[in-house]
Write a structure and sequence with these properties.
heterodimer, A: 474 residues, seven-stranded mixed sheet, 43% helix, globular, B: 109 residues, alpha+beta, SH3 type barrels, 6 strands
Amino acid sequence: MNQRDDYQAVLARRNEIMRRSVGIDYGAYVDGRLSFDYERLLADAGYDIEATRLLQASSAVGNTPLVELPHLTRLARALAPPGKGARILLKDEAANPSGSFKDRRASLSVHEAVKRGYPGIAAATSGNYGAAVASHAAKAGLRCIIVQEAFDSAGIAQPEISEKTRACEAYGAEVMRLSVGPELFYVFLRVLEQTGFFNASLYTPYSILGIETLGFEIAEQTRAMTGHFPDTVLVTHAGGGNLTGTARGLRKAGADSTEVVAVSVDLSGLHMASDRDFNRKSFTTGHTGFSLPFTTWPDRADVPRNAARPLRYMDRFVTVTQGEVFYATEALATLEGLERGPAGNTSLAAALAIARDMQDDQILVVQETEYTGAGKHPTAQLSLARQLGIEVRRGDPRENQPGRNIVIPEHPSQLAVVDLDLSGIRLSYLRNALATLEPGQSPSQRDFEFLAADSGASVATINRIVEQHHAQDR
Amino acid sequence: MEILLVSDRAEVGDWVEIGDTVLEPGQRAPQVPEDTRRVPLQYRVRGFAAEPGMCGAPMTIRTRAGRELRGTLLAVRPAYEHGFGVPADELLGIGEELRSILDAAVASE
């Protein structure tokens, strides 16, 4: 059979390619015009917490240390009013085999690929997830292909991504590196179609269920260490999987009243598909370029239904600046003796601000760290930024302008979070969901229930947005 | 030393990098911004040379995932060139500044 391999032809085959490469019939979960049975989709994957823990333990994933940060706690208290300044704990996810929490996601995907008899595994990722998939594929004896967006049209590679290229190749994977552009998805579809490999998408149930153990461990370890569950957990937020999986794990451990805060690096003004902007971002993940689009519309993912649905679990959504994260990275290394990050320290930067607003008998958990190394380091990023004409200086982080400057705080009291308008984000989600209806179509009763759960908005709000949608229709 | 390692010529089995254009500027996806639309989408991938060849000429490689790919030979034994960059003055002082804040807090307790 001859089939065309041009962009339009391959994208037209995307649903069929995806169905074969993840082995999930998403159509079987559709139960409305907009809604699908989210809990059944996850349950049918067949991994409860105990099953996931056993599997992950067999490849040394998880059970990472929960580390007390006494110096950063004292720092927060020194800058806070009397009686304020939460105790700060850090989940040291860098202790996983490939150096980040992504091992939790990759372990289940690789296990599924082996179980279902796929000849290999592939993932589209420029981040730690590639190294994690490559590492677990190596251990399972599976062939592995990682597709990265890695360099701009001048051939300049993002140093952090270069390190991921090296790590993936160290684990024996083929790394297909691409220049900037969303057509990476087209290349990835062709790889899946040509090889018949399993798609280790970041957005399948496996990829989310694998992270539930992280939330579960945080709840258990915090209670063992302090006598109660965390008051607040800060999660570095990009595609939504980290937040979704962690929050679900916290709930499964019984930590129902723990506040879950999403934290992203503010990269407003930089276009994610721009060749020029590509290397003007000093962060390749954990930033608003991913987190805002994925929070307001999760189903933009590479699978028909994203198992990461962050608005179901998010109590608060804040941003920090690039300079503040570099500052926090330096603080963690020099005060606590932990050289980690930088991207994983996004929520640490927020912790230094948020802890000051909390009572001193409260517990704040920073939910992850990641390994550091050549390229994946503040000095590598600041060197590239300077080379591209971006101003690097000490100053007030409120003067931050992504792509133009990186402002390193002059004093820890300058670290602050900016709250995003969560109700506005819920409205954006609802508008995006309704835009997928056929003209004149109305949501069913089941759709209303789904939208309420999926957006976190009230039924009254949903009614109002539906009416606005119909008014535009007419 | 470097002169001995760098070569434009690959022999069968050498670790090499190939690359090529995936999409020409006129074939880019409709949603890409203007600056990206002006440049081609390119790929690069590393593997073992399946034939002898010169940089700039066509080359077939066998990747570590077992695929045979054909493109233009870009480099023989390509180096990992990412590093730690230049130490940043803006970061070097932070540790000491924070210690003095902690010391002052202890002194005032």
